[in-house]
Amino acid sequence: MLKGKSIVVCVSGGIAAYKVVEVVSRLRKLEAEINVIMTKNAEEFVSPLTFQSISHNHVVSDMFAEPKKWDVEHISLARKADLFVIAPATANVIGKIASGIADDMLTTTVMATKAPVIFVPAMNDYMYSNPIVQENIGKLKGLGYSFMEPDTGMMAAEGTFGKGRLPEPSAIVEKITEMLYPKKDMNGIRVLITAGPTREPIDPVRYISNHSSGKMGYAAASVAVKRGAEVTVISGPVSIAPPAGANMINVTTCLEMYDEVMRKYKDHDVVILVAAVADYRSASIADKKIKKTEDDMSVKLVKNPDIARELGKVKGNRIVVGTCAETNDLVSNAKAKLESKNFDMIMANDVTMEGAGFGVDTNIVKIIKRDGNMLELPKMQKTEVADRLLDEVVRMLGK
Which of the residues are catalytic? Predict the structure, then answer.
């Protein structure tokens, strides 16, 4: 299954290192090429010879040892890898990489690679829940690194029960396989996504807008592309990089976004409306900056077109997914919008909750369908939320 794939397994100094021997063995049976990097601390738990015998490649640990081949070893491994796996990922290694420290072969090679990297944490449960460790994990996730959740059970060293065990080798190998061969269940599906805020000008220097960062919409686009969809994003002004592989249409105002949505929706099978569109715009736009005076100033606002409502009237057999950001009565407000705007599904979040809403990399959502079924997702990365949302879309398409 993994023939032709190059995987670098990075083993750091935790007692769970012994489990990684089986991970390497299973990967070899799937015909992957395995190179193992060990920290000096890891060698206190498992002999490098063990990994060398199973991987059929020499084990790298010393940055200053004589190279086995005439190349810069950490660079060659970084370039050849299809995937890096750090298991067990100790608090020390997580902290060093999160801080940009590269002081051994493991951290140096991880810093030098452009391949996907997955951390598989294993440590004492108190250590895993430590806010510093969690902050480092959150930082790395925000930078695009992947993590497996540790298992809950008996700790090998302490004999206590808690969350921090290395997942079973079979689960780790399954995750590796999934990363190397991601789902392609959206091949041939055309997806239109709106993202970001709109800006409604008042004068040349002022505008009405909101706190939307575009992160949720861009996450949905990125995940849809990875799953094989042909994706077009109609985006308001944001300060984040566009999702690779998506067709981008940049707009500023609600009227511009409305025009593009109504022009493009017919060419797509699925429309996901994530943009935070301004409900109102200024009735007139001054051609020069409005100067401050001693008097109060009022701006007359007129209502913008409701893109979601107008699309709901003409959507035909397309699947339309709406979103709503609320501060109270989340479920009742979401269900009302689901009906009034003829959505097939709505993703709702309470922006007053910590870790949800605008400008952060995580979200906490409820996905509600027309049939009343509701999927409640705990706090997770927006890319993970997008993946779960697209799972539901794919089910509705009958794929």
Answer: 210
